[in-house]
Amino acid sequence: MSSLIIVESPTKAKTIQKFLPKGYTVISSMGHIRDLPKSAKEIPAKYKQESWATLGINIEKDFQPLYILTSGKKTLIDKLKKELRTHDELLLATDEDREGESIAWHLMQVLKPSIPFKRMVFHEITKEAILKSLQETREINYPLVYAQETRRILDRLVGYGLSPLLWKKIAPRLSAGRVQSVAIRLLVEREIARHAFVTAQYWDLEASLSFQDNTFKAKLQTIDGKRLITAKDFDSKTGKPVANKNFVILDEKQAKALKKNLSSTDWEVANIEEKPSTRQPAAPFITSTLQQEASRKLRISSKRCMQVAQSLYEKGFITYMRTDSVNLSQEAIKAARKQVTALYGKEYLHTTVRSYTSKSKNAQEAHEAIRPAGNNFATPAETGLTGYESSLYEIIWKRTLACQMKNAKQTHIKATIKADDCLFSATGKRIDFPGFFRAYVEGSDNPEEALDNQEIILPPFKKGDSLGCEDLLVCSHKTQPPARYSEASLIKVLETEGVGRPSTYASILDTIVQRGYIQIKQHTLIPTFCAIAVINLLKAHFPDLVDLHFTAQMESNLDEIASNTRNHLAYLKEFYLGDSGLNNKIETKTTEIEATVFRSVKLEQLDVEVRVNSAGAYISLTDEKDPETKRSLSLPNDLPPADLSQEMIQEMLANKDNAHAIGVDPKTKLDVLLLHGHYGYYIQLGSNDDSEKPKRASVPKTITDVNSISLEQALFFLSLPYTLGEDPDTKAIIKIGIGPYGAYILKELDGKKEYRNLEAGTELHKVTLEEALALLAIPKNTRKKSEPLRTLGKHPDDQAEVHVFKGPYGFYIKHNKTNAGVPKESNHETITLEEALPLLAAKEGAPKKKKTVRKTKAKTTKKK
C-alpha cells in the first residue's frame, strides 16, 4: 500500500520524508491553494455580473464564499492529482491549528480524491512524533474549518465594507480591518497622549559618597521631613504639580544653594534595610512571548521572528510555533530536567515539576508551548544552525530549561544617609542564589553578564558609620511623555486583551506598516496623521469595531464555533444582517457622515487643523495679507504627529516664505528655487503665483548637501531627460535622464530604445556624449556577469541552485530562467529557501505576457 502525504512547505516535506519507511511520498502544497478573489481580474467570468462578485461572498446564499485558486497553483494542483492516481491513500498533514485544518479542507475540495483520505497531525517533526501520527489519523475537524472560514469572511465583510466609506470620507486607497483597526487605535491614542503631554522640569541632588575606599551614589529623598517631588507628582496635561500633596519642589537656584549648605556638613548612615525576594522563571514561550523576546534580544520584527520559527519547526528543531498554550508534555519536562542537572548541577533543578497556566484571554490553538523538539534536547552548538535560526533556537532552548530550574534569590538593600536636615537614599542588590538566572535572563543575551549587571554592591558600612562626600551634583530632570509602543509592547497588550490570535500578530503589524498607517523608527511604532483621521471616524461612527473588548468577544465567538458550541452561519447573520448589523450601519453612515469632517485632525495646543489627502498631511491657513486667500503647508510624510508644534509650523512657514533662490534662469528670467515637499527636495522654475504651473524636477537622492546645488546643476535637473547629442555613426539620439531606479543613458533610433544604467553617485551634468557612447558600445551580454550574493539551497523539484542577485531594480531570486523580486518587507540577507519557493512558484505559474501586435486594415478600393 502506498500513501501520499501533503504538507505546506518543501522543507517540512523533506524533513518528514526522511523519517518514513518505503511506500510514503511527501509533497508540498506551497501554502494556501485557494482564497477569496483579491481583485476584479481574479473573479471568474461567470460571476463577474453578480452583485456580490467584488465582495467574493454570496450573502443571500448563507454567506457562501467564492474561492479561487491562488496565483500559480494550477500546475501544482495538476501535479498533485497525477500523484493521487498512483497512490492508495491520501494523508493531509498540514499544521494542527485552524489555518492548517482549513488548508487540508481546501486540498480535499480541490483534489476530490477517489482514494481514502485522512487527517495526520503532530506538533513536532521528530521521527517518534511522525510515526505516532501515522497510527492516530483522524477525520477533518469541520468546526475548526468553519471557525477559520468565519474569521476570513468577517475580515472580508469589515474590510470591504468600511474601506469604500473611508475612500469617500477621507482619502482614496485607505483600508479598515477587524483587528488591524484596534491595533491602530492603541497607537493613535498613545500618540495623541504624547502630543498633549506637557513637560515639567524639576531639580534634585546626587551625592558621590565613600566608605573604606569604596564609592557609591545616593539621591536626595527628603528635606526637613518632606518628600522631594518626583516625575509621578506632575500632571501630564498641565505640567504642574498635582494638588494636595505634601512635597518639596526645588528650582535650580534652590538646588545650588542646598548644595552649598551641604558641602561642609557631616554625612552619616542613618539606617539600613534589607528585604529578601525571590524571582520565578517565566513560563515556556508561546507565540506572542517569543515575538516579544525576539524583538528585545534579536531586534527583529514579529514577521521575521515567525519566518525563522517556521523554518526551525519544519526542519525538526522546535515544536509548533503558533500556540498560546504554556503546557509542556511529560517527555519535554523530563528532557528539560535531565539537561538542567547535566549542565548546571542538581542544586539548580527545582525540587518538583513546575507547571504553568496561560494568562491570556481565550487561550487555545496547539497543545504545547514552543520548545526544542524531541525527547532529548539538542544544545545550540549541536544543531549546526547559524544566523537568526541559531539565535532564536538558543533563546527557546534556554527558556525551556529555565522553566524547570529553582527560583533566583535576591536581597534588596536600602541605605538611608543623613546630611543636616536632608536624607539621601542609596540602593543595592545582592544575588544570594542565581537559580534560573544561570541559564536565562529576559532581555539579555548573556546570563552570566546579566548576573554581574544585576548585582549592585554597597560598601560594608553599618548604621552610625561616617561617610565621606566626594562630590555633590545638582541634577535637572524633565518628565517624559508616555513611551510609544514597540512591536513587543503592542503584541503584549493585544495578547492580554484577547485581541487576535498568535498566528495573526505578525500579519497585523505587517499590514498596518504596508498600508501606510504607521512608520517604524528605532523599533517604535508611530502612527501617521491619516491613521488618526481614520480612527477618529471609526470611533465616532463604528465604536464597536475599534473597541478592545468587542474585538476580544469576537475571538471568543470564533472559539465557540471551533468547539462546536456556536453555529457559524447564525453568528454571521447576527453580525452582518438586520437593523443593527454591520451592513445596515455602513449604508446609513455612508449618507450620514459629512464628506469633509474627518479629513481634518485637531490636536491640542495647535491653533490650526491638520488635513489629510491621498498625498499626505498638510495645513490650510489664511493669508494674513489677504484673508480671502488660503495657503497650504505640506507636512513631511515622516513627521511624527506628536512632534508637531506651533513653533515648528511657524518655522516651516518661514522656510516656505523664504524659498531658497538658487539663481535666475537666463532664458526665461524666472527664479530657480530649491523647495521641500512631501517627498523631499525639488527644483522649481518660477513661483506658484505665475499663470502657468511651474516646472519641477526632483533632486537626486545621491545629493546629500542640497545647499551646495549650483545654478548649472539645477537647470540641468529641470532639463532632464536631456539630449546629449547624436551618435555620429548611426544618427541615434543619445539622452541622459533619471528614472525610478536611478540615472540612465538612452539611445533612440527608429522607435527602438536601448538603455544603460549609470553608477550611483555619477555627476549627471558632467557626463559627456563621448562617455555615453563608450558605455553604450559595451554590449549587454558581454558586460561583467553578476555574481550571486547568496545561495539559498537547491530547488526541491530539480535540485538546481536558487540564488539571490542584485539587479538594477533591486534584489531578486533566481532559479534557472525564472526571476522573482525580493518583497520590500523581506530582507535579501536573511530570506530563506522556504520563503523564496512560493515567490518562484507564483512567477513560474503566471501566464506569460503576450506581445501586442497592431493590426492594420488593408486598403481596399471599391469596384466601380
What fraction strand? 15-25%
How much helicity do the residues have?
Answer: 25-40%
From the alpha carbons, calculate the radius of gyration and give it in angstroms: 33 Å
Average pLDDT reading? 87
Q: Name the shape in a single word.
A: globular
Based on secondary structure, the structural category is alpha+beta
- Let me know the number of strands: 34
Description:
With 864 residues, the chain is of the alpha+beta class. Helix content is 32%, strand content 23%. The protein is built from 23 helices and 34 strands. The strands form nine sheets. Strands 9-10-15-14-13-16 form a six-stranded antiparallel beta barrel. It has a four-stranded parallel beta sheet with strand order 2-1-7-8, sandwiched between helices. Strand 19 (600-601) and strand 20 form a beta hairpin. Helix 5 (142-169) packs parallel to helix 19 (582-592) and helix 8 packs antiparallel against helix 14 (487-497). It is globular.
